[in-house]
Amino acid sequence: MAACATATRGLQQLLVLSALGFLATSAPQPPNIVLLLMDDMGWGDLGVYGEPSRETPNLDKMALEGMLFPNFYSANPLCSPSRAALLTGRLPIRNGFYTSNGHARNAYTPQEIMGGIPNSEHLLPELLKKAGYTNKIVGKWHLGHRPQFHPLKHGFDEWFGSPNCHFGPYDNKVKPNIPVYRDWEMVGRFYEEFPINLRTGEANLTQLYLQEALDFIKTQHARQSPFFLYWAIDATHAPVYASRPFLGTSHRGRYGDAVREIDDSVGKILSLLQNLGISKNTFVFFTSDNGAALISAPKEGGSNGPFLCGKQTTFEGGMREPAIAWWPGHIAAGQVSHQLGSIMDLFTTSLSVAGLKPPSDRIIDGLDLLPTLLQGHMMDRPIFYYRGNTLMAVTLGQYKAHFWTWTNSWEEFRQGTPGDPDSGTHFDWKGIDFCPGQNVSGVTTHTQEEHTELPLIFHLGRDPGERFPLSFASAEYQDTLSRITQVVQQHQKSLIPGQPQLNVCNQAVMNWAPPGCEKLGKCLTPPESVPEKCSWAH
Amino acid sequence: MAACATATRGLQQLLVLSALGFLATSAPQPPNIVLLLMDDMGWGDLGVYGEPSRETPNLDKMALEGMLFPNFYSANPLCSPSRAALLTGRLPIRNGFYTSNGHARNAYTPQEIMGGIPNSEHLLPELLKKAGYTNKIVGKWHLGHRPQFHPLKHGFDEWFGSPNCHFGPYDNKVKPNIPVYRDWEMVGRFYEEFPINLRTGEANLTQLYLQEALDFIKTQHARQSPFFLYWAIDATHAPVYASRPFLGTSHRGRYGDAVREIDDSVGKILSLLQNLGISKNTFVFFTSDNGAALISAPKEGGSNGPFLCGKQTTFEGGMREPAIAWWPGHIAAGQVSHQLGSIMDLFTTSLSVAGLKPPSDRIIDGLDLLPTLLQGHMMDRPIFYYRGNTLMAVTLGQYKAHFWTWTNSWEEFRQGTPGDPDSGTHFDWKGIDFCPGQNVSGVTTHTQEEHTELPLIFHLGRDPGERFPLSFASAEYQDTLSRITQVVQQHQKSLIPGQPQLNVCNQAVMNWAPPGCEKLGKCLTPPESVPEKCSWAH
């Protein structure tokens, strides 16, 4: 059996290598890699996923020319852990992007955070460098902003973008405005040199990020260097923004304006690859870091289509993502794959595209999707839904088991009073609701409900919206439970949690005086260093 | 102004006629018309509308070859009124398919109903006959089952199907089993000669209906007669069914099996049109009678995608429908139209396809969509959402105003107790819930809430799920309200309600002894005639 499996694996590799053209006598330049990572964009935001206003012609075309994944997942319902998982191929619980300050608490990298991506983690760009790639990140890093976490210390050659989210404006006294970097140095700050008009929503940031992408592609093409572009833009994260030509053009309001500008930008990137004649030598993947932020809906939040809840939760709306693979001449056009995919697969798959193997000294959660992309192979694999330090749920095939449920606390949910006449909406609960209009009794709980002995199990094919748990008494439940229990036990047996990076906060580590601030005259004085336990609300 | 508008309209008509080839010197045979009407299929049930399992390759291809409508509506959230509206081009409140027994009560045509389609209504097939069409209905009629309401008395030349829904089995004592007709006479009854296995879901009815369609098309083609096929199949109405080759093939359970069989059947119908070389002379339209029946979910109900609630309600999930127009050589491939469409438009559009005008002696609610289909024209028009005798809501452009909200009564909703361990689901409220897991405070009400003075207004572009009503205080609300009020006043000024057909019930009028029963030895003895007021639960 083992020998047979090995032989089969060898044959698969041969097929993949052959499909990539690596068996030709003169080894060609390895393919370029472009990962287009959206911020808080939901599964339901693209026309090809059923968004009723159908305002994404370029992304829909990308899907028609490539492979669409309806069952593709982020590694976490929140930005920083999801991004760390993409670049390491490992669950946040392994790479340290979680908190142990509380049970099942979401955590990320605000300005106060002490932690970031550990040096012990091997990031995708670090590994690609070994195959001669030039690597650029455009946009949001979010893996820590202290000097040791700088993306150029973790394998990227170039950076235009920001270490944290474009929140603000801050007052540069209690909190500094978020810096924007070019490579090693800050070139300005959000809301100062890089303005976002909160009243109109106007900002030209997506255009800047687009231009960075186009310039990088052209330059690397001229240099004949294989390249990795990580285009991590953030226009769909609240406060959402768009440039003037796109403002007011969507049926969906300002959020839709941002989507339209992104769609247009993706079209321009793909067109450039085609015009340069390198589309057949460039692997492109489009996805998002977590589900749409329904707390920002309807004005600044997207859509998770038919799925339950959104960002911050481990329901499908929090972690099922839009996902499109595009590689003309390699990935056949117009395919839909039901393979369960993960954002962590982009790590392993990108390495495979480059002809590299993932590190063998640690557990890598990402799978190599090339056999799926090139030959339509299906692989059995679980999807783990963590929230902080807690395994909340797992999906195996069509079944999803919830071991813990909660969205947020009653205190947060119940804040405020209904019916404020000055508010933008009619029923103005100021409370935070990750599942507006979607409360399922016993499922979307506001206390941390433990179901580890008797998980809530849903069949995601019949019930993608997670509204109808299977009966505990059914044979289907019992059979599923036993299969899932095995998988979870195996997972937990081998699990060595990483050192939690998101536990300690300190006002002194904020972006007071990033490198380059002297040249700009924009250095601020940090307060006294007082490390303290971070408080995570959700 | 008026002269200019007339001239423009004349030019439009000229363009349409020219596109249809009617300006050629030898007038060709008018195009065939095929209306594919689904039963309780939801907006979200097709891959092209984002169904995650993507099991409708033929329908998705139909959309890619034709025009997809994301904003297409039924005329009622229930079967009979919706079907009467399709065939008359008129709202149920005009054609009599409503009840005045209670306020805002849904009503249809069960076996006890006395009423049906009045002779005073002009049905689409009656009008098409004037242009030489041969007309066939395959499947569910639902416009009354007493002799005067027989489809062959209302313009159809052929019928294979049933006057009522395939409910049952009944005991032929308290209630007779539902008959299946071929033309004038019953040829058997459901669950007897036409079995449905309620345990396995097996029934070959869709295959019978498919064969009827294919045979009719072939015969009319051979006769060189223009034809109208009304394919009103019912496999996706609970109890859902599929034939053996499709059972167990869907990721979505039995409901999905039914959808897959329908998708396959639609593919076969379109292929036949192409193989016969008549696809360019056949206008095909696919839609559904009302939203998915979420009370039957997850085992026997479909999906309304991102929309609120389902069948029986006047939220989007109750009335927004999948809709695809297909007419190769006339409708350009791969289009999406944001035109607000209505099932009633199929009446007027079909007449227009046939070169006929709608009746001018009455108000017709259906628009001629040919300018949209052929030239992409957009027309301003309201969508009215009635429930029984009550105008519940109206959509104008992107805005929807609710004048009344309710889904069903507290008594119905609260029936039963949670947590029955023997049930198929974990939280077994036996109560009827048209919005499972989707209750929006103040919106999905269980009392009849009047909002006529201050309607709840939603922007369906930003908020297709109807979760966030606009603030009463906003300028957007005030502006929208004044525009919508004008439209409603105009509508109500000209409204002459038809004689309500769904008020009186009588056990004696059930399908005891349909014509042809003697030949089959299947005549049953009706009870004494006792007309009484029908009781409508929802």
UniProtKB/TrEMBL annotation, chains A, B:
UniProtKB keywords: Calcium, Disulfide bond, Glycoprotein, Hydrolase, Lysosome, Metal-binding, Signal
Cofactor dependency: Ca(2+)
Cited Pfam families: Sulfatase, Sulfatase_C
Subcellular location, principal: other
Domain Sulfatase N-terminal, first and last residues per copy: 31-355
Substrates-to-products reaction catalysed: Hydrolysis of the 6-sulfate groups of the N-acetyl-D-galactosamine 6-sulfate units of chondroitin sulfate and of the D-galactose 6-sulfate units of keratan sulfate
UniProt xrefs under PROSITE patterns: SULFATASE_1
UniProt protein name: N-acetylgalactosamine-6-sulfatase
Species lineage: Eukaryota, Metazoa, Chordata, Craniata, Vertebrata
